[in-house]
Amino acid sequence: MSVGRIITTPACVAEGADWLAAHEPRFAAALQVTGPLPLRLRPDGFAQLLSAIVSQQVSVASANAIWSRMKEARLTGPRKIIAASDSDLRAVGLSRQKIRYANALAEARINYKNLRQAPTQDVIATLVEVPGIGAWTAEVYAMFSLGRADVFAPGDLALQESARVLFELPERPKEKQFRQMAEDWAPWRSVAARLLWAYYRVAKNREGIR
After folding, report:
1. How would residue 1 be classed by pLDDT, with cut points 50, 70 and 90?
2. What is the rounded distance in angstroms from the CA atom of residue 190 to the CA atom of residue 193?
3. pLDDT at position 108, please?
4. pLDDT in tens, 4-26
5. Torsions phi, psi for 50 (to 5 deg)
6. pLDDT of 114 strictly over 90
7. What is the predicted pLDDT for the residue at 59?
């Protein structure tokens, strides 16, 4: 099973945006107000997923502050997490639940290099086995850390709200309905997500994703 298209440059994103605009007039209209879409690529590996766990259910400012303290304490690698005591991890701002999740991720011993060549559904299946990593985190990791061009995050509230406004829906689409709706945007669902997040920022004057 192939990995599919990998987004590596702004030109890849622009190609996807052009395809979406040609296939869906509302996306063409959205691009008029958002302008060029961001590349948004991030590193892959343990630290990126640990950072995602840190970000759960706290503000962007709080997540950034905790992550900064973790970097200063050199608590961003699996061996360092396993060697740290609960009090060490509490001292940098992790809750009891997030300490459990951080240790579970460290003990999972995921082969991050192998994930780069794995089909997206296998990447997501591997990641969601780890306590503290849900479908949203796994999908966003595939999208931005692995550069997968055709993955979506239908459980994301900002994407749901952006689609509600752009497509003039009576309410936010539910996750299952939204996943089906996004099938029309293959093979560029990751670019559709970038476009909807960008449109959310314009429509709501708020960032939809860290």
Report:
1. low
2. 5
3. 97
4. 999 999 999 999 999 999 999 99
5. -60, -40
6. yes
7. 83
Q: How many CB atoms lie within 10 A of CB 136?
A: 18
One-letter amino acid for residue 74 of the chain: R
Q: Please give the Cα distance from 173 to 163 (Å, whole number).
A: 8
CA-based Rg of the chain, rounded to a whole angstrom?
A: 18
Of 1.10.10.60, 1.20.1730.10, 1.10.1670.40, 3.30.450.30, the CATH number of 10-40+150-204 is 1.10.1670.40
| Average pLDDT of the chain, as a whole number | 94
Those residues whose C-beta lies under 8 Å from the C-beta of residue 159, and which sit 6 or more positions away, are: 152, 153, 178, 193, 196, 197, 200, 208
Structure tokens at 97: 């639940």
Q: What are phi and psi of 61, to 5 degrees?
A: -65, -45
How crowded is residue 32: how many other Cβ atoms within 10 Å of its Cβ? 9
Tokens of 56: 């759960």
Domain ranges for the chain: 10-40+150-204, 46-145
Determine the Cα–Cα distance for residues 210 and 202; give it in Å rounded to an integer: 16
> What's the pTM value of the predicted model, to 2 decimals?
0.91
Share of the chain above pLDDT 90, in %: 91
Q: In this structure, which CATH number among 3.40.30.10, 3.60.10.10, 1.10.340.30, 3.40.50.300 belongs to the domain 46-145?
A: 1.10.340.30
Q: Which of 74, 136, 126 is nearest to 105 (CA)?
A: 126
